[in-house]
Write a structure and sequence with these properties.
With 453 residues, the protein is of the alpha+beta class. Helix content is 43%, strand content 20%.
């Protein structure tokens, strides 16, 4: 007579027959059976965001979890320890559209603790997983997809380079599938442009561990921008792909490791380098230098009066220059924020007020822009640029008013026509609400500048 345990062991053996062992040590702790082949192409890499559906069962067939029952895809970052070890191994082997069955032994699942009350201790689990999609990790602060990293090989340790660190990398750059750069290069993080390393690679290296090998896709504004790189035959506004291996790095001193003299000295050098980048149209690289100054000098512990005055002047200049970079990059709200920070140091600073006025004018905040230009003229009545901007504000405000007036007239005419035809039974308050809604729909030219920010 066959016992329940023998039947269970037999079913496991039958299930495991012909399955692929995914474990690095080949201990058969994670076995995979492909139920439906995926599309040809690559598999997810470490750090990729993956989108799956799954159903989890115990060996007795009892279902303990299912994303399909919730009608909600499960999303996680591969290889970051966010899921069971078996999942990190299993999903990494899948192709888009693939459906597979994973047989997960306890030491690759919930182990001796289980996951009460659904999963008992020391349970072997069976998951059916469908890989719906995956995409690389977005490294940009704004999450605008400008720098996408995919890790081929994970690095060692926990430390990564900081700004100012000296890094030794091997890189290969491709443009439309053609290799244009292949070399070992050493550069300072934040100053990669000096070695023809684009800002996107520079920023990505700051997130890498020693020994990491990754693929980086760059949008034009994180590559060589609208200037291109003639020396490498890169035309303007071109997307690029790089393979990068971080061979070694030496971290730069952090702010707290430097004395006041060293901070001021380095800040002056950063200001000069930032100005050089700015003059050559490399605004993102310039911002990195200016922001270093703010980090180094914002905390003025135990400074002499002379040191404190020098630090204040450098930080004020840094905020003003960051604001100018944002204006050049058409990041108007960020430009306003930088000007606000500058005005915390000097409430009637002519440049801060003028640049904030420029930014506000670009996002159609006419009254606020006009107020800023008025303050500029209070500080310097001879500022011809501010006088010109005042005239422009008046003109734009008038155009805005006339446009709204015309839209209101058209809207009310529409309602009058409807009333005559007996098709509009709305109250005056309801009409006004609809007018405002249709104004918003009929005036995309007023909304466009804000959406572009």
């Amino acid at each position: 007579m066959t016992t329940g345990q023998e039947a269970k062991d037999g079913s496991i053996a039958e299930l495991e027959r012909g399955a692929e062992d995914l474990t690095p040590s080949l201990d058969r702790g994670v076995l995979k059976i492909v139920k439906k082949a995926g599309t040809d192409g690559e598999t997810p890499m470490i750090g990729d965001k993956v989108f799956v559906h799954y159903t989890g069962n115990l060996l007795d067939g009892r279902k303990f979890d299912s994303s399909r029952d919730r009608n909600e895809q499960f999303v996680f970052d591969l290889g970051k320890g966010q899921v069971l070890r078996a999942w990190d191994l299993g999903v990494a082997s899948m192709k888009k559209g693939e459906i597979c069955q994973l047989i997960c032994k306890p030491n690759y699942a919930y182990g001796s603790t289980g996951s009460p009350p659904e999963v008992p201790s020391n349970s072997t689990l069976i998951f059916e997983i469908e890989l719906i999609d995956f995409k690389g990790e977005d490294l940009t602060d704004a999450e605008d997809g400008g720098i996408i990293r995919r890790i081929r090989k994970k690095g060692q340790g926990y430390f990564t380079p900081n700004e100012g660190a000296s890094v030794e990398v091997y890189l290969e750059g491709q443009c439309n599938g053609a290799l244009f750069d292949q070399r070992e290069v050493t550069f300072v993080v934040g100053e990669g442009d000096d070695q023809n390393v684009p800002i996107g690679v520079d920023k990505a290296v700051e997130k890498m561990q020693k020994g990491e090998h990754c693929i980086i896709h760059l949008k034009p504004n994180y590559g060589f921008g609208d200037l291109g790189k003639p020396s490498l035959n890169i035309p303007p506004n071109t997307e690029l792909d790089y393979e990068v291996l971080l061979k070694n790095f030496k971290k730069a001193k952090e702010s707290w490791e430097m004395d006041n003299h060293e901070k001021l000295e380095k800040a002056a050098i950063a200001k000069e380098k930032g100005t050089s980048y700015f003059k050559h149209g490399k605004y993102k690289a310039a911002q990195i230098q200016y922001k270093k100054i703010v980090v180094w000098l914002s905390q003025k512990y135990c400074m002499t009066q002379e040191e404190s005055q020098s630090a204040k002047a450098l930080v004020l200049a840094a905020h003003l220059n960051v604001a100018m970079c944002h204006l050049k990059l058409e990041e108007y709200l960020k430009a306003v924020e930088s000007c606000d920070k500058a005005l915390e140091f000097d409430g009637m600073n002519e440049k801060a007020l003028y640049r904030r006025g420029e930014a506000r004018l670009c996002i159609n905040e006419f009254d606020l822009a006009k107020t800023d230009f008025q303050k500029v003229l209070q500080v310097n009545p001879e500022n011809k640029a501010a006088k010109t901007q005042m005239v422009l504000c008046e003109k734009r405000m008038k155009e805005h008013h006339e446009r709204n007036k015309k839209i209101y007239a058209n809207m009310f005419q529409k309602f009058a026509d409807r009333d005559l035809k007996g098709r509009n039974g709305k109250s005056p308050r309801e009409k006004e609400s609809v007018v405002l809604k249709e104004m918003d729909e009929d005036s995309p030219e007023e909304k466009k500048p804000r959406e572009a920010v």
